[in-house]
Amino acid sequence: MSAPTTRRRAAALSTADEAGEIELEAREHPGVEEKLRSGIQSIEVGFRLLEVLTQERRAMMLRDLALAAGMSPAKAHRYLVSFLRLGVVSQDPVSGRYELGGFALQMGLARLARVDGVKLARIALTLLRDQLDQTVGIAVWGNQGPTVVHWMESSHPAKAALKLGDVMPLTSSATGLLFSAYLPRGKTQAMLELALSDARKQHQPGVPQSAAELEVLLDDVRLHKAARVAGMLLQTIHAFAMPVFDANGDLALGIIALGQEGLFDINWGGEVDLALRECANRLSYELGYTPEAR
Fold it and tell me: What is the pTM of this model?
């Protein structure tokens, strides 16, 4: 039997054992099954303190921490005593202020070491595609530029001849503009100069033909924290591309939504913009990003 198969069976047996223990406890103590399955409320209450410390950039006094977590100082102190013992929080012996402890750091580092941004995005986009019923995808930076690595069609596929592995143009697609706006210029400069040269030869309407015209578009991307195009690459196809950042504040990947004119809300603040933006922000959070990182 292979190692992966053994691990899967072991995990299944572990889950089955846990479920069996819950069922046994429920039979021996009628009425507790709902409590067993609903979790431990005190842990959830105490976690509010950790949420506050995670969001606050400085160590906090007990009274301020308790107030932000919505509990009394006495109640907060009881939780903090346990968190201190476990190393989840630490306390300055002079000021008495609390902050996240060493174990919290180890947990965060362990999470970052295991997280796979594209895998998380694939799961998230399944729900997003069903919510919007628009074509969605994922792009990452490759040797040739922003490359499509995942694609999911809507129930009314856009007439766009896109496929996995396609490299999106830097100056005439929402995806390309997104990566051009957020990647270091040293990584994109040569490709951008070539794209501008090609645009001048082909005279494509709406496509920037000079560095100055391109910077106007890139400034707009950074202003809105998203890129959009309306019929630029393909005449009747509209698209949004949203940035997903990693723990260092760098662009990890872009998530894309596109659709046919008349069936796709291209407005800032519209249905597609808001849903895609929420998804991108959630993924950035999962990758350890905070707005202060940029």
Answer: 0.65
